[in-house]
Amino acid sequence: MKRYVKLGYDVISGDDIELAVKGIAGVRVSNLNPNRDNDKAKLGTITGISNLQEWTWPTDEEKVGYIHARALPGIGEWKEWSLEKIEKIVKKRKIEKPNSTFTSHTQSIKQWNIPILNKENKQDPTQSESRGPVKRISPQVKYLLESMFHTGTANPRQKLNAQQMHEELLKRAELGEIEENDIPKVTTITNWISTFSRKWKEAMALRTLEENMDSENS
What we know:
By secondary structure, this protein is mainly α. Helices cover 38% and strands 6% of the residues.
């Protein structure tokens, strides 16, 4: 689309968009018109909803109808909204199903062909000349690494570096808790600490923002 505009064309209407993508292989477009009613009163919304990335709707008997959400997938505690809280947010307004109108999608004039590599010459994506196979950290080892990370966060005196974590994993392997072959290299643990630490700081920052927003709205 940017290239189409740089060539001197204008993109104002839906017809202009169709012309812009006409020569792109495998692209189809359709015009969608939502039936927005500007006279309707706005519904309530969940405070800090834009900061919540993972959502789930429990199916167990005690939590049916509840909504659970948290800032980052797999990190932090779930925030919970009960049926009573949801009713207060909706404010007993009627929620209607959208009745949008749309046109039939256009047909691409070019096919999108993907070349298939010869199996004999195809290189394994997990292999390279300078590196061996890419090995993922097993769930059990990842759980131990996270436990050591959180222990060091709670008590800086017990904080371990990558080499110390590696030695601790070796001890666990000697005790038969994990397989020695599952222990990652020190460099892998170093990279894991960097990535996990960044995600943890982001989660804590979002949590602080949410708590501040909740205190302001209470």
